[in-house]
Amino acid sequence: MCEQQSCSRGGSGEIENAVITYLGSRPRAADTLEGIVSWWLPLQRYEIARVRIETVLAHLVDAGVLRRDRLPDGADLYALDDKVERTPHPH
């Protein structure tokens, strides 16, 4: 059994952290429940995921699995490094 407060909160800690983090970078933000569900939380998850993905891509470049080419607009383009042995994937 669990206490009333902890049962009612369930897995809300993740949501609470996402809202606080969102507001930490946008302290003047205000929205309705619908707006928060539709915009704040997906955006916050995207930003967190973006940092994680960027870290993984940097690791793969450092490991020689991927190459990173700079595009004229300054964006990075990732692709399998030419030196990586390609193995066929079963279909």
Explain this structure to me?
- With 91 residues, this protein is mainly α.
- The chain contains three helices and two strands.
- It has helices at 4-9, 12-25, 33-62, and strands at 66-70, 76-80.
- Strands 1-2 form a two-stranded antiparallel sheet.
- Strand 1 and strand 2 (76-80) form a beta hairpin.
Features:
91 residues; mainly alpha; 55% helix; 11% strand; elongated; disordered N terminus
Summed up:
The protein is mainly alpha-helical. 55% of the residues lie in helices and 11% in strands. The protein has a two-stranded antiparallel ribbon.
Layout of secondary structure:
Blueprint: H1 4-9, H2 12-25, H3 33-62, E1 66-70, E2 76-80
Antiparallel strand pairs: 1-2
Tell me the Rg in angstroms. Answer: 20 Å
Helix content: 40-55%
Mean of the pLDDT scores?
84
Structural class, by secondary structure, is: mainly alpha
Distance between the termini: 48 Å
DSSP strand content? 5-15%
> How many strands in all?
2
Order of helices and strands: HHHEE
Spatially, the strands of the biggest sheet line up as 1-2
Shape: elongated
The number of distinct helices, counting runs of at least 4 residues, comes to 3
Biggest sheet features: 2 strands, antiparallel
Low-confidence stretches: 1-8
